[in-house]
Write a structure and sequence with these properties.
The chain has 131 residues and is mainly alpha-helical. It has a domain of 91 residues. 41% of the residues lie in helices and 6% in strands. The chain contains 4 helices and 2 strands. A two-stranded parallel ribbon has the order 1-2. 14% of the residues are buried.
Length: 131
């Protein structure tokens, strides 16, 4: 592991936990959206990733939606937060339950507004079904 990779890891740990702490201090949904966006932008800036949303005018400005990504990397949630920056769309993230007690993500997941998903449960499929 290079020195730069260690610096990135430590900075990511600091960002995730400092924003997790701040998220725990508010119950206001729009403040949570603002903090999650600030966290996402800081993480992406650190990684030198810019987000360019094509056809931004086609994105809905408000409403209720289920946003799904293929989650090919750990940066998918921050990418979605940044892509929805100029909308009123906000809601919980779905996180695997193992992250709840994670040293790296635990504080953030507990306070960011996450629905925990137990992938080991045989009834998991019921989570996605409508009655």
């Amino acid at each position: 592991m290079t020195f730069n990779a260690i610096k990135q890891l430590l900075y990511g740990l600091y960002l995730t936990n400092s924003f997790g702490y701040r998220l725990g201090k508010t119950n206001d949904p729009m403040e949570k959206k603002r903090l999650r966006l600030a966290y996402s932008e800081a993480q992406l800036n650190t990684l030198h990733i810019t987000v360019n949303v094509e056809n931004m005018e086609k994105l809905p400005k408000d409403g209720t939606y289920l946003l799904v990504s293929n989650h090919r990397s750990i940066i998918d949630p921050p990418l979605i937060e940044v892509a929805l920056k100029n909308t009123e769309i906000f809601g919980p993230w779905i996180s695997k339950k193992e992250l709840y007690n994670s040293f790296f993500f635990g504080l953030f997941v507990r306070n960011a507004g996450s629905i925990l998903l137990d992938r080991e449960k045989s009834q998991m499929s019921g989570f996605f079904c409508r009655d």
